[in-house]
Amino acid sequence: MLTITEPAGKVRELSEQDIADLAWHEIATRTRWTDGVQTFRGPRLKDVLTQGGMTRSDLISRNLLMKALNDFGIVVPASDAWDYNLIIAREMNGKLMRVRDKGPLWLIYPRDQYLELQNAVVDERWIWQLSEIIVL
């Protein structure tokens, strides 16, 4: 479901079960692509990144190339994972997301909770159909 490539070249393949086994968290927020407040659930990005042994100090100054199923890619500062407790949502409003619903994985920022997240630069980081993370 999600491939993570670490700086040393180690590649981790996370299955749907691996994602399900992590602690899930919830963010209720508005997005540019939906109407009204939506409730998203999934593991925290920082938990996904550190599950393989990397630490916060290994990652905090790095960038993450996030890639979608269609090969779209966007660079996200790894520090966002800690500064804003981003989640990789698997559910929206209590339902598993499908590819046609921007799923199966969508990077979610708590946009309504931080004024500094309400701008076009951050909105571009909300990558949906997330399939790969490359730690730069």
From TrEMBL:
Domain Oxidoreductase molybdopterin-binding: 30-110
Domain of life, source organism: Bacteria
SUPFAM superfamilies associated with the record: Oxidoreductase molybdopterin-binding domain
Name of the protein in question: Oxidoreductase molybdopterin-binding domain-containing protein
Biological source species: Paracoccus kondratievae
Lineage start: Bacteria, Pseudomonadati, Pseudomonadota, Alphaproteobacteria, Rhodobacterales
